[in-house]
Amino acid sequence: MPCDSALAGCDNEDRLKLDELMALCTTLQNRVLDLEKTKTTLHNEIASLKRRVKKLEKKDSRLQRASRRNERMDDVRRIEEEVDLDFLSDAHNRTGPVESGDSCEMKVKLERGAT
């Protein structure tokens, strides 16, 4: 078995230690490569998740704005109903039972003119 020029004077024990160290070095290099691949994969997954979170946050923001808009519209409708009910209640107190259409308005106008 030929001996490398750098290892010309080495005995078998030193040769075994060198072989073990070379195998260990190769194993460690492979582990480093695997860890770098894992790191790249995780980096890509994190970037993907960040994009997804940003997209969901935008969607949530739009939904919150729509919800607030709907709440405001509900408030407006509720106020309009209260105003309508107040008006109808006042009209009923002035003219008796409320009738539909122009005749109701006419009774209110006549009642106001009579007082």
From TrEMBL:
Keyword Coiled coil in annotation: yes
Location of region: Disordered: 90-115
Keywords from the UniProt entry: Coiled coil
Presence of the UniProt keyword Coiled coil in the record: yes
Coiled coil location: 18-76
Superkingdom per UniProt: Eukaryota
Compositional bias per record (Basic and acidic residues), positions renumbered to this chain: 104-115
The protein's name: Uncharacterized protein
Organism: Tanacetum coccineum
